[in-house]
Amino acid sequence: MATTFADELRNWGPSAVGGPLMPVRDANAYCRRLAITHYENFPVASWLLPRRLRQHFYNVYAFCRWADDLADEVTGPQRSLELLGWWRRELHACYDGTATHPVFVALRVTVDRFRIPAEPFDHLISAFEQDQRVWEYETFDELLDYCRRSANPVGRLVLYVCERHTPSNVALADSVCTGLQLANFWQDVDRDLQIGRIYLPAEDCERFDYRREDLRARTMNSAFVNLMRFEVERARRYLTDGLSLVERMPGRLQLDVEAFARGGLRILERIEETGYTLWKTRPVLTRHDGRRLVWGCACRAVFRRLGIAAHRSVAAARSSK
Is residue 270 within 8 Å of 285, Cβ to Cβ? Predict the structure, then answer.
């Protein structure tokens, strides 16, 4: 029988941790189990990852999985805030070398190996805490600040583990991650409203004369279409502006990064194809979309390598003259 988060919390929550330090091998196995059984996209992506990096990605993912569940799978915002505060204390204990939770036993190896600071992990926790307090956004700048802490840290963590963390790469990764987060928001406009969350900034709704009352009534009109066309195009710019990150990544990780970015772009295309009827239809990627994405990314990777090889051949020929 599958393990529920209630089981995880009972076994490894605040009242359970603090005993003998779990061996790193067992902690790694725990994080690997979380990664391959809880996230629908992770098994697909993991085979693209170099074997030497997979465990480190499992460890980072396990941290994110726990933080996400503490925010969404616990009864009541106040209880979530209490548990997220505990999770932050465990994070700091990890950096002090005193954490006993299996996620942090495994993660300590990763942060030491790649010299990852606590900041991106701290930012993720702060975004989950914000989810317990903020249900609507007045301005796009406020939404961007949320993306800066809820999405961008993931890209930065990937750069650390891939040993590609530079200021220029961070800017590109932030653009991709923000674009992906926005695409997810627009894909889930109806789902989020069902739980009382509104990510469409009030200032944008006002700009297109789509009232909050219209939104809560799920009114489908020309104002909504114009609003969503604007938001989709804005998300697309973030994604396309960051696509050059792909060629800066090593080996097969180019496929992984490009697949996620182009998956976001495909979601935006799906929204357009539905005529922005987001109150009736939730756009999703099909298996056919997935196969096309992987095949397209693989073909582009081959052409990039052929181009690099051709460039080197020309350079070598010129230098030999």
Answer: yes
